[in-house]
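In this section we turn from sequence analysis to structure. A common task in structural bioinformatics is to predict how a protein folds when a small molecule is present, because the ligand can shape the pocket around it. The inputs are simple: the amino acid sequence and a SMILES string for the ligand, here zinc ion. Study the lines below before reading on.
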Amino acid sequence: MVKLLYQTNSYLNEFPATVVAVDPEQNAVALDCSAFYPGGGGQPNDTGVLVVDREDLAVIRARRDGEHLWHVLDSSATLPESGQPVIGRINWPRRYALMRTHTALHILCGVVWRDYGAQVTGGNMDPLEGRMDFEFATLRADLVGEIEAKCNAEIAASRDVRVKILPRAEAFQIPDLIRTKINLLPEGIQEVRTVEIVGLDLQADGGTHVANTREVGRIRVTDYKSKGAINKRIYIAIE
Ligand SMILES: [Zn+2]
C-alpha cells in the first residue's frame, strides 16, 4: 500500500521514492510513497515532476486506484522501471493555492453552520476559487456580505488548523463529525482523518490544508445563486 505523505505533512513538496509499478498503457508510475494529492473531496489532483536519472518527467495527473497512487506522465516521457529511485516534486504554487482555497471553504462551512445552522450539500474548487452549496431557504445580498465579513474575521483570528488520524470508533463518538455525515464512510475504512479549524470547524476530510487560517489571505464572495428551494450556491475567490 502506498504511503500517502500529504496526509500528515501538507507542506512536503519534494520527496524521494521508489517505483513499485508501471502502467505503459496510461504512461503512469506508481511509487512506494507520494506527496502528490490524487484528487478527491472537491480538491483537484496535484501536478509536478518526477526526477529520474536527473531528467524531469512531467506529471500531468495523479490518481488513486486501490493500493496504488498513479502518477500519469506526459506522453513524451520514457517510463522508468520498477525498482528505480526517483525524486517527486509537486507544482508547489498550484498546490499551495489549493491548500488556501480548501481551508477557505472550510471556514465558509464553519461560519454558515455556526451562525445560520445551514448544512453543506456539496462543493468544488480550483486554485484560488471555489463554490459551496448550502441548505439555505433564502440568501440575499446583505446576508452574503455578512457571511464574507465573518469569514474574513475568522482569517484575522489566526486559528490553527489541525489534522488528526483517528480510529474509526473514536471518530464516530465526535458529535461534529456525525453532523457531517461521517456515518456514510464505507465499512472497510478503519481510520478517519479529521481536519479541525480550532474553535470553528471539524470535519472528516482527506485534503490538504494550510496550518493557520491567516495563510488563506482574504475571502471574497464573488457570486451566489439559487439551485432549488432549499439549495443555495456561494462562489468565493481567494486573494
Ligand atoms: Zn474539505
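The first helix runs from residue 92 to 116. As an exercise, try to locate the residues that line the zinc ion site and compare them with your own expectations.
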